[in-house]
Amino acid sequence: MNFSAILGLLTDLYLAFKFALVPSLLDTARQPSLLIRPIALSRIFMAHVWTAFGPGVDENSRLEKQKLITPYAHGVVLDAGAGHGHTMLYLDPAKVTKYVAVEPNADMHQHIRRKAAGAGFNEADGTLVLLGCGIEDIGTIRAALNANGPCVDTIVSVLTLCTVPEPQRTIQALVDDILRPGGAFLFYEHVLSHRADVAWWQQFWAPIWQIPFDGCRLDRPTHLWISEVRDSKKERTGSVWAAQNVWGKDGETEDTLFWHRAGNFVKRLD
Ligand SMILES: C[S@@+](CC[C@H](N)C(=O)[O-])C[C@H]1O[C@@H](n2cnc3c(N)ncnc32)[C@H](O)[C@@H]1O
């Protein structure tokens, strides 16, 4: 594998610390208890990183999101790990009735509300639902949507499933309990490479990378896990998907530790 791709990660780390270290230290000075709460501190660091880099990351993946989200997101759309709400920029207002942002990092909520106002979603009329829980908290999501069964037409996950705890169980629960039959699961994620040399370096860096970046793992085969979801509610062995389509990022070389896969999966109707 190309040596500069391996070391490129150090450049990313350097830039992240350059922009996020000072504000994170200031936050720690205001709340010294963060020193004994490393997960909360990592989340604050990530919020500052995303303020600096979120717009650039969005711009860099704009073409993929236009292909993935705009034509297929419809009805009630749940944005898993909404961040600053960049997904809203790709929603077709004629097709989307409600935007549900699930974002556990409260420092990001002000950005979501601002984007929602620009996109015509608001909490007063129920077209915006903003939840501060993790995507694994199925009970809270259902309660907020007043639903006993699957109630969402589209789940969108952009660069989030790298971070959620127990990802396979969470994906299964989202498909079983949240996504309606006939609904779409749309994702754009960096995943474990299919190349052994790249995967080795992803697995090498993953435990280090996750410390400052709120648990983000470089070594998850998320696209394969989604593809493997079975219908656990019914006595059958087949896939829960009626259709699935996975593709890569245009122009991306395989020699990268951030190897992206986009996918459009449709849940079976029966
Ligand atoms: C790299 S950002 C991507 C944000 C957004 N999806 C986008 O592409 O602009 C990952 C987001 O996932 C959120 N996140 C972390 N753990 C999560 C969890 N358990 N459930 C839902 N979101 C989570 C983070 O707070 C962060 O906003």
From TrEMBL:
Top-level taxon of the source organism: Eukaryota
The keyword Hydrolase belongs to this UniProt entry's keyword annotation: no
Signal sequence extent: 1-16
InterPro entries from the UniProt entry: SAM-dependent_MTases_sf, Thiol_S-MT
GO molecular function: methyltransferase activity
This protein's UniProt keywords: Methyltransferase, Signal, Transferase
Gene3D superfamilies per UniProt: Vaccinia Virus protein VP39
Transmembrane segments: none
Gene Ontology biological process terms, A to Z: methylation
PANTHER family associated with the record: METHYLTRANSFERASE LIKE 7A (PTHR45036:SF1), METHYLTRANSFERASE LIKE 7B (PTHR45036)
Name of the protein in question: S-adenosyl-L-methionine-dependent methyltransferase
Organism: Schizophyllum amplum
